[in-house]
Amino acid sequence: MKEASVLLMLIAFQVVALSATSSGISIALPGCPDKCGNVSIPYPFGIGNGCAAASLNSYFTVTCNSTFQPPRPMIGDPSGLSEIIDISLERAEMRVYGPVSYNCFTSNTTVMDNYTSGFNLVGTPFIPSTTRNRFMVIGCNTMGIIGGYLHSNPDLYVAGCYSYCQGINSTSNGAPCTGKGCCETTITPNLTDFAALLIINQSSVWTFNPCFYAMLAEVGWYSFRQQDLVGHLGFINKRAKRGVPVISDWAIRNGSCPKDGATAPMGYACVSSNSYCVGATNGPGYMCNCSEGYEGNPYLPRGCQDIDECKLHKQNSKYTELYPCRNGVCRNIPGGYVCKCGIGKKSDGKNSGCRPVLTQAEQVVIGLSVSSVVVIALACLLAMKFQRRKHRKEKDEYFKQNGGLKLYDEMRSRQVDTFHILTEKEVKKATENYSNDRVLGCGGHGMVYRGTLGDGKEVAIKKSKVINDDCREEFVNEIIILSQINHRNIVRLLGCCLEVDVPMLVYEFVSNGTLFEFLHSNDHKSIIPLDLRLKIATQSAEALAYIHSSTSRTILHGDVKSLNILLDNEYNAKVADFGASALKPIDKDDFIMFIQGTLGYLDPESFVSHHLTDRSDVYSFGVVLLELLTRKKAIFIDNLNEQKALSHAFIMTFHQKKLRDILDDDIIEDEVTVVLEKLAELVMHCLNPRGDERPTMKEVAERLQMLRRIQMQQVTTPNPMRTQYPDGESSMSIASDEMKYQSTNTAKLVLDVDRAR
């Protein structure tokens, strides 16, 4: 990516466009222009040399391009300037025109034109606003991906969405981008370096849609138009000739607010008296604000000037409610005002007006006032009662709408007595009104809270973001199925809450975190013995095999990864987040794929065919097995500081017969060489690019059971305390029950593994 594109996606935002106020307060350095065309340029930004705070950051310098009428302000490197739409001091935001990535094809799917946009904001004061921007994709059967790096974080960030065109003629202009014709997704905070890419199946290019677009744009700026799909670069020529508006947060990045009582450091930007410093809302650094009762530019000496509330009150009636002084004399003071009462009057106690001193006549008025208060209180009580009745009716409607009546009938007919339907009040009490302290995690489908029910039982409550109205009956069916699942290695669905707009699910609470944290967290760097890894792998495989083949209706997990495998206090595996968690089926007529985080677990065959099968879970489980064997992430950084997919690296190493180079050193022992080789072969079968040539999850579970027995027999020694688990418990003591069933002939078990294959 060229430096010329550094600020092409310069970040930007809505903000009060500051110009010189009616009181004559300057927003630019003395002698410097405060506008370029119709756009105000407040300091620390400035037009030309000497007018910007270049010592804080060179990117505060603005170029005013007078070749346009009116002139247009530009910012960035001379080789890649971006046009500024507006700047705000109060919100520390900037809005600019950003570029659009596109791919165009001829009727025979030959590439006609393409452009990939991106930016690198490292070293600039700008970071894209997370709440004010969305990543958007326009086109038929295309996937857009935004990938990049976060501020001071080496891990790669990837997100994206998929847009399709089945039934596009039924989509009206102005529709939101939910997947048909266009799609959108959020971006992460602290994103300083990214590129927007398009992944297109050229064989499915639609004749009326030759071009596909991807962009970072302001929330609410774009809504779907069918004409955007037609013609070569039609969207850009008709709606984005100057680019698309993008909003960024800016701040003084090379510093922080001084601690209370500390002397301000050299180069401190909040130089105006009557100003204060606040930390940046997005990324490192700080920004400056004028104190209450003052307005202006806090980055300039004496830039924050006192607001004359009394003068404003007299000049414009719109300030009457903002600065009230009824029946009194307004007097301005630094940072505020007072309302002085004349003879025979006294303050109303709010510094907003004066009233006469109490007289006998006023006593009558007071009596009438009390009566009025009683009447008003009764009216308020009636209104509150009406509101409660309305709220209760709304809850009942949600309950019916979400399938509550059907769920009750099904529970009675199937005699499901372990599943509970909770009220919204019970859920709020369990989560302390959705307290941030109760948050366990936040994923692509919603927020998960730790809750405590009335009987003291700890649970995990999933508050999903959205559910499609067409899928509510399917959702209830999934709840019925999942509530009947009783497997020791599957997180149990205990109940739900249906009297809210989006139903909430209640699961059993698993206390020891995720397998991902156990393997990769800096807090878990102790040795993990092979038998414990095999135990976790075997239990996880048995759980997946169960939902594939042992339930009344086949359930596909669809998102198998180490983050979705939980561990209890005894390191037993619990598979989570499947079935109803997505709240939306995936089929050939209705397919949307949102990608959050790494792509290391995704079945390549499903990615191309857009079909999810049980063998897709097998592929993803193969990657989890690799994490257990190598203790590397699905997307990891090798010794050359390059990012690689773990599955690809393992396949290359396996074919080169260098298996020891990638396995975790902690489990490489001569006595378990046979087990490691068999595990590697099993992984290769799971990662087969053809789904129908992969084993079933039941076969995978059986092979892991055999290999676990082999491993336990081969490491058996007279000293049962030979291997220790991370919590100090002996591996041999934990495995004692398993040893009761192992064969006395290791060679025979090896033959069993080969036969199972």
TrEMBL record:
One of its GO terms (molecular function) is polysaccharide binding. It comes from the Eukaryota. InterPro entries: EGF, EGF-like_Ca-bd_dom, EGF_Ca-bd_CS, Kinase-like_dom_sf, Prot_kinase_dom, Protein_kinase_ATP_BS, Ser/Thr_kinase_AS, WAK-like. The keyword Signal applies. Keywords: ATP-binding, Disulfide bond, Glycoprotein, Kinase, Nucleotide-binding, Serine/threonine-protein kinase, Signal, Transferase. One of its GO terms (cellular component) is plasma membrane. Residues 434-707 form the Protein kinase domain. Residues 1-19 form the signal peptide. Pfam families: GUB_WAK_bind, Pkinase. The keyword Membrane does not apply. This is Protein kinase domain-containing protein. It comes from Triticum aestivum (Wheat). The gene is LOC123119318.
